[in-house]
Specification:
The structure is a single chain. The chain is of the alpha+beta class. It is 50% helix and 11% strand. It is built from 16 helices and twelve strands. Strands 1-2-8-5-3 form a five-stranded mixed β-sheet, sandwiched between helices. Strands 4-12-9 form a three-stranded antiparallel β-sheet. Strands 6-7 form a two-stranded antiparallel sheet. Strand 1 (48-53) and strand 2 (56-61) form a beta hairpin. Helix 7 runs parallel beside helix 16 and helix 12 (252-287) packs parallel to helix 16.
Length: 458
């Protein structure tokens, strides 16, 4: 058959989306209710939506096949986009925001710290930190509510310090507040499209500058403490690997900047997502006491009165199912922004080079075509003994493709240990009348904290 007899390719599909006159309302939603912006777009226009927001146009794809194409099959064409591009001014060029050869070097440097064998070796440290959390929560019985979000943040920072950095982060008490200021600045960059210069003395930007200085001090202290150790005593933790990696830089200014960016990124990503996941999980179990009872019973049956071990993870099956369902409803990374480096075709929709493409796990995880009664809490969706007829990319709480979260196994072990140990001994109840609101920042947090009362488990 000659080329002249070949049928022409089908015309590209037209991207549906809100008309231009709705732009002011879309901008307001971007600033005030980003989850509603994405949910309304998916509900109203389907699995491929063009959203014009001021000078920026987002191409929002909400189908597992489209997500697979962008995040895995043609991942090389899609660099980090909206959200993390703006976060670069706050976080620098760490593993979350870097691209190309720098990203590959960073990933190669820290990957061994997350190998399965090493994660298994960290199980005792995680269990000990979880036991300390249970003791702190127990002290609140009969003494009014405790902010569970704050407690989970302290826990995850403690775990991160012991398992990845071989350091005590308790001495750096302002880390969580500094990271809140960093996240606030990063999201401010998103909603203003980075059009406000950093030197403008807005309160938010002044807090960010102070936070950046504080985190630099933390980085300097951690590296100085490690340098002071006797030669030959450095371990295989991630901090040691970062120091070795950055020392390869000949320019000391570049070396210091890389160390700051990579360690700040690790500190943020290593504690924020798991703290958010645990907070949402405890609130969901309060709303669904029947599930709490099952977690409580499983923890007692599997653990008795001892600390969990790595080998217990397989037996804590229902506990893991609860965590997975919590991440379906409230994925810690709620949006994945990408920028197309070259023109492409996504499911018949043309994407020009330079376009902002967005995958939203929050809406994907609630897609009615792939999840029955998608807003209902149902851990049985993740029962490993039942065959589930849904596409692989309908559920992507840790991202997908080459940039799949390197810390997913540590995060799941930490969440399972904490949930089992807390449910075994205690019962947490969200304060009556407290309205729990999702706050989509770099992670999907509980806005304003999560006050819960603590009682002994029956």
């Amino acid at each position: 058959m000659t080329a002249t007899n070949l049928a022409p390719p089908p015309p590209a599909k037209l991207w549906p989306g809100p008309p231009r006159h709705q732009t002011p309302g879309l901008v307001r939603k971007l600033m005030r209710d980003r989850l509603a912006l994405m949910s309304t777009a998916a509900d109203g226009y389907g699995d491929a939506v063009r959203i014009a927001i001021g000078p920026k146009t987002l191409y929002f794809v909400n189908h597992p096949d489209y997500a697979k194409h962008v995040l895995a099959d043609n991942a090389g064409n899609y660099h980090k986009g909206i959200g993390l591009v703006q976060a670069r001014r706050a976080l620098g060029d760490g593993l979350l925001t870097s691209e190309g050869e720098l990203w590959r070097k960073q990933r190669k440097a820290i990957q061994p710290g997350f190998q399965a064998k090493r994660i298994a070796q960290q199980a005792p440290a995680v269990a000990e930190e979880a036991a300390a959390l249970v003791a702190r929560l127990r002290s609140h019985i009969g003494h009014g509510p405790v902010d569970v979000m704050k407690e989970m943040t302290g826990l995850t920072l403690g775990v991160l310090g012991r398992t990845l950095l071989d350091a005590d982060l308790a001495a750096h008490g302002g880390i969580s507040n500094a990271f809140q200021a960093m996240q606030d600045q990063a999201m401010f960059e998103v909603v203003t499209l980075s059009m406000v210069p950093m030197w403008v003395p807005l309160p938010k930007q002044l807090r960010f500058r102070r936070a950046r200085r504080e985190l630099q001090d933390v980085v300097n202290t951690l590296t100085a403490e490690r340098d002071a150790r006797p030669e030959g005593t450095t371990g295989d933790d991630v901090l040691s690997r970062l120091i070795l990696s950055t020392r390869a830089e000949s320019d000391p200014r570049v070396r210091d900047l890389r160390m700051r960016d990579e360690l700040v990124t690790l500190l943020l990503a290593g504690h924020e997502t798991t703290a958010s996941t645990l907070s949402w999980t405890f609130n969901l179990l309060h709303e669904n006491p029947w599930a709490w009872e099952r977690v409580h019973a499983e923890a007692n049956a599997v653990l008795g009165d001892r600390l969990p071990t790595f080998e217990d993870l397989h037996a804590l099956k229902y506990t893991s199912m609860v965590i997975e369902e919590a991440m379906r409803l409230y994925p810690p990374v709620w949006m994945l922004g990408r920028i197309a480096q070259g023109s492409d075709d996504i499911g018949g929709y043309h994407v020009r080079a330079g376009s902002d493409v967005v995958v939203c796990p929050y809406t994907m995880h609630r897609h009615p075509a792939f999840w029955e009664e998608p807003t209902r809490f149902d851990p049985e969706r993740f029962n490993p003994d039942v065959t589930h007829d849904r596409p692989r990319y309908a559920y992507i709480p840790f991202g997908a493709g080459p940039r799949f979260c390197v810390g997913n196994n540590l995060g799941m072990m930490e969440a399972a240990f904490v949930l089992a140990m807390v449910a075994r001994e205690l019962r947490l109840s969200t304060e009556a009348g407290y309205h729990v609101v999702a706050e989509p920042m770099l992670s999907l947090r509980v806005r304003g904290g999560l006050p819960m009362t603590v009682a002994a488990a029956r």
